[in-house]
């Protein structure tokens, strides 16, 4: 019984350590800029600070994603993109590529 309690405490401590190291980010792509926002640990779809962590020019390409976990480097940070959001990254880069083709013909 005591061993189970110790084991449970160790598991919970490990989970807490892992969760405390997570830093969720929200990437917002507009027609003018790319913003990197800090997100909450549990409310990961809600920005947790008023000011963006980084503001990048829209000409910045997000992809291609690297590795099996879909990582990219943005604003000096290595970010892992969730599986459902990978299509959005590809779409943002496709729009960027299309806008560059349109400018080349002008």
From TrEMBL:
Protein's name in the database: PH domain-containing protein
């Amino acid at each position: 019984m005591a061993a189970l309690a110790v084991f449970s405490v160790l598991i919970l401590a490990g989970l807490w350590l892992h969760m405390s190291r997570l830093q969720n980010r929200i990437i917002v792509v507009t027609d003018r800029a790319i913003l990197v926002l800090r997100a909450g640990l549990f409310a990961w779809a809600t920005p947790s600070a008023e000011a963006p962590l980084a503001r990048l020019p829209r000409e910045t390409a997000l992809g291609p994603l690297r590795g099996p976990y879909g990582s990219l480097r943005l604003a000096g940070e290595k970010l892992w993109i969730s599986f459902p959001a990978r299509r959005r990254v590809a779409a943002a880069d496709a729009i960027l590529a299309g806008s560059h083709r349109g400018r080349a013909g002008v």
